[in-house]
Protein 1
Amino acid sequence: GQQLNQSPQSMFIQEGEDVSMNCTSSSIFNTWLWYKQDPGEGPVLLIALYKAGELTSNGRLTAQFGITRKDSFLNISASIPSDVGIYFCAGQPDNYGQNFVFGPGTRLSVLP
Amino acid sequence: DSGVTQTPKHLITATGQRVTLRCSPRSGDLSVYWYQQSLDQGLQFLIQYYNGEERAKGNILERFSAQQFPDLHSELNLSSLELGDSALYFCASSVGASPTSEQYFGPGTRLTVT
């Protein structure tokens, strides 16, 4: 079945730095979603992408749907302590009726 | 607050027992999805219901079952519980049945099997 890889697995950054993470697959996807999960909480939807090449922003977050439709990127600018958490990508495979597949997540830590 | 509610928040039970988890979707959403998240694991899709009917099945064990009621709330039943069933169980909802519909997650139920 389709699998998603996320990199990096974890990252430690200084407050104020920009962050970049990605989600890749060997299969084509139609839709990408990016979620953030705080410990013990449910994932919160950050950004949804529907077309190859699409670039969408939500405050300090920007995500892009890769041209090949096999990847997506999430960037966070000027990180702050509350950005700490696990960021999951989810892709909807290019098979009719297939539900979203979730990546294993990127764990972000922000150092003051 | 996503608008999706789940009860209970925590559940502790013994092996071999049966439990029921409950989810109420966002107002207006017709689809409900159930996911399992084990420690340090990603989200595993279990099952989807749309307007009372089963829509899609993922990696759901035969010991697990779900249903969606006429008022659109859903229940996930877990039986013959094993230690490995300890996990966070999330419910998500979306407006439509389409797999491309944006899903909004509830706060989860943490199940501990002892």
Protein 2
Amino acid sequence: QKEVEQDPGPLSVPEGAIVSLNCTYSNSAFQYFMWYRQYSRKGPELLMYTYSSGNKEDGRFTAQVDKSSKYISLFIRDSQPSDSATYLCAMKSTGGGNKLTFGTGTQLKVEL
Amino acid sequence: EPEVTQTPSHQVTQMGQEVILRCVPISNHLYFYWYRQILGQKVEFLVSFYNNEISEKSEIFDDQFSVERPDGSNFTLKIRSTKLEDSAMYFCASSERGTGSSPLHFGNGTRLTVT
């Protein structure tokens, strides 16, 4: 079983839709959960950063973590064509430095 | 907003040649990292670096790889004798602290093509 699993997509939605992106993981030591956005031929850009279980909201973005189910989500409200990118989930455990384990990324396309 | 900068954006080299990839981390950050992404695959950790020492490295980071902070601003990744399978995007990242509460900020990467 992979440490972090993420549906690669592609996921295509109309402008204005609510987008739900998800990752599952197997390592119960993961405590910090991140979502990065990656445009084509660019580096990962940090969107959301959460610790342990719960919700975090930032503008149109909401990150949810359910540690009991080992499941994290990113919701994008009122999606825009500029949200079209690959979304990467990433995780790390406490202690032992700052090494991130990434999912494969979900490619999202928001269409006019 | 401060950012991590990487040069060159694209490097083409022949198999067996040495390459040096360069990074300027965010100025008040103390921890530095290299990750790579082979085309179509996930981003993978290579190495973390703090206080002029390697903190942690992955199995990928073998004797062909080395990192250095030659001065107060640059952070480099050297590949001594490149192989075809080293072709990938290489991302530098930095963070203020080395703990889990300090997020990593990535540069835009160097695309390395080994022919």
